[in-house]
Amino acid sequence: MNTGGLPRGELLGRYRTYDQAQKVVDHLASAEGFDVKALSIVGNDLRSVEHIRSRLSYPKVAGAGAAQGAMFGFFIGLLIWLFAPDSPMINMLLSVVLGMCIWMLIGVVGYAVRRGQRDFASSSQLVATTFDVVCDFSQAPRARQLVASSGVASLQRADDPTGPGTGQGAGQSAGPGAGAVGGPSGASGTGPQAQPRPSGRPASGWQDESGRPRYGVRLTDVKPDEKTDQGEDEPHQSSSPPQ
Question: Domain locations in the chain?
C-alpha cells in the first residue's frame, strides 16, 4: 500500500491517456482476489496547458462583469433578508443592480488598462504526457498475466513521447513488465542520493537522471550477504613444511 511519494513496484505499462491507464486498473480490479491497493497511476512529464476560449471585447467584458456582479449582489441581498426578514424585497433587487454596476465598472476599467496585452479569455490546467501503471512487487506476477488480457496496448519505446521522441531514451528499450523501476529513495533523481549521470548514458522515461530505475530497487544494487563477502575475501593460508 502506497502512503505517499512515488510508489515502489513493477511497471506494468505506460499509456498515452489517463483513460487507458484507468481501463487497465478497472480490468485488474475486476479480477477476483486481486488487491487493488497494490496499484498506482503515475503521471509523467507534467505540462501547463492554457486553452484560449475567446477574444475579449468591451461588450464581453461588461457582460461578464455584470453576471458576476449580479451573483454577488444577490448573495448580499439574501444575507440582508436573512438577518432582517421584515425588510422589503426591493432591497434584494437594489443589491443585485448595485453589484452589476460595480463589477461591470471594474471589468471595463481593468480591460482598458491592459488593452493590447491580453485580449483573450483562457483557462489553464496541468496535464501529464504519459501515465504509468505501477504494481507492488507482491502482486506483480499475477498483475502481468491480467494486463495482457486488458485489451489496452502499452506504449513502446519508439512511440513514447518522454523517450526517444524527445531525445531522452535513444538506444534503450523497455516494455511493460520490464522489471522493477525506481530508486531506493523513491525520488526521481533530484534528492540527495542523485548522482551525476555518466556521459553517454541518456536519460529515459523509465529511469531517473542518475540511471537508476524510477520505482523500486535494481537487483544489481543489492549488497551481497556479509557472510558471503567475508568468505570470499578471506585469503587462503598455506601451511609451510616444518623445518
Answer: 9-50+127-221, 57-118
* 48-99 pLDDT, tens digit each: 999 998 888 889 999 999 999 999 999 999 998 888 888 888 888 999 999 9
> Whole-angstrom Cα distance, residue 161 to residue 205?
9
Q: Name the pairing type of β-strands 39-55 and 9-15.
A: unpaired
State the cell numbers at 233.
Answer: 575475501
Given 3-state DSSP classes, what are the helix, strand and coil percentages for the chain, each rounded to the nearest 5?
40, 20, 45
Separation of alpha carbons 69 and 77, rounded Å: 12
Distance CA 81, CA 92 (A): 8
Rounded to the nearest 10°, the torsion over CA 78, 83, 84, 89 is 0
The whole-angstrom separation of Cα 136 and Cα 216 is 9
Query: Residue 71's Cα: distance from chain center in Å?
Result: 35
Give the pLDDT confidence score for residue 221 in this predicted structure. 58
